[in-house]
Amino acid sequence: MRNDTAPISRQALLEEANLLIKNHEDFIHGIEATDVEQKGDVLVFRGEFFLDEDGLPTRKTTAVFNMFKHLAHVLSAKYHLE
């Protein structure tokens, strides 16, 4: 873990992540981070990916991927899981 990040609980991190999602200019209703894990220095967020009935990605899938990538970039620079 990096020494320049603050420890945070999983629940507190998910609350902050979901607040960032809701306040983001590219917010789409239904996008929510439901889990997070630490992979080295990177926080990896998970949630619903909105696949179609055939299991293929939709426009919303791309939005979710981009939002979770944004969360990883912003929040990994600030926090690590306790």
TrEMBL record:
Superkingdom per UniProt: Bacteria
Pfam families: DUF2498
Protein known as: Protein of uncharacterized function (DUF2498)
Lineage of the organism: Bacteria, Pseudomonadati, Pseudomonadota, Gammaproteobacteria, Enterobacterales
